[in-house]
Amino acid sequence: MTTRDDLALANRLADAAGAAIRPFFRARYDMELKADKSPVTEADRAAEAAIRAILEKERPGDGIIGEEYGSVREDAERVWILDPIDGTRSFIAGRPIFGTLIALTQGGWPTIGIIDQPIARERWAGMSGQPTTFNGKPVRTRACAALEGAGIATTSPHLFGEGDVPHYMALVAAVSGGSPRQGPVYGGDCYNYGLLASGFLDIVIESGLQSYDFAALVPVVEGAGGLMCDWHGEPLTADSEGHVLALGDPARLEDVLEALGSAPGRNHDH
């Protein structure tokens, strides 16, 4: 069993999830609110169930961590991390900018990542040591010579914790140079990270993410030449607090960290 076998399987998992999701898009379906007040639909559950059925048959020794159906064998060396619909609010609103996230971690590190948009049939695939592909063709992030004027995105400013907002706004101010026309792109969830990998955005910033929200993003962004880290500049792990940065041009990292200032837990002298 090679890494390429795993990548082929990951693509089949995304195919299965997409087939489960498409009949529900802009259609009638059951929906409810979870304990954290986030929405979940029949499509979320159908997609994760489809993925899990394949994994249980073909990789019965691997662990699985999924947003909708919890964890099994999560202490295994190899663990698949699933978010069947990242961006359920966009899905509910009929906006095709949500995505299915599939990651394979080995020893706790993401080695394969898939971002799949099943309506537009757009797929970014990342694998350690290989260039990221978009629908099978290699993609690269773009150079970003300065922070001012950089393309920045986040899903929603309302998702930042109260203590995070001043740091986020400081970064927005540094990027915009006082011009509202240089402000952030809002909406997009995981789709923004695919756009960054393809060279259409320079910075994505979020907080409050879980491992199933970001594990698949790391191989995609970094395989395209970008960098993913937390708001301290540290690598993302299962223990990360969910403060996530993605940079298309790693050369801008210190500029971004400086603009963020005393981000959560950061020393003021950074």
UniProtKB/TrEMBL annotation:
Source organism's superkingdom? Bacteria
Could you say which cofactors this protein requires?
A: Mg(2+)
Name the residues that bind Mg(2+). 67, 83, 85-86, 213
Q: Where is the signal peptide?
A: none
Q: Which Gene3D superfamilies is this protein grouped with?
A: 3.40.190.80, Fructose-1,6-Bisphosphatase, subunit A, domain 1
One GO molecular function term? Answer: phosphatase activity
User: What family classification does the UniProt entry report for this protein?
Assistant: Belongs to the inositol monophosphatase superfamily.
Q: What is this protein called?
A: Histidinol phosphate phosphatase
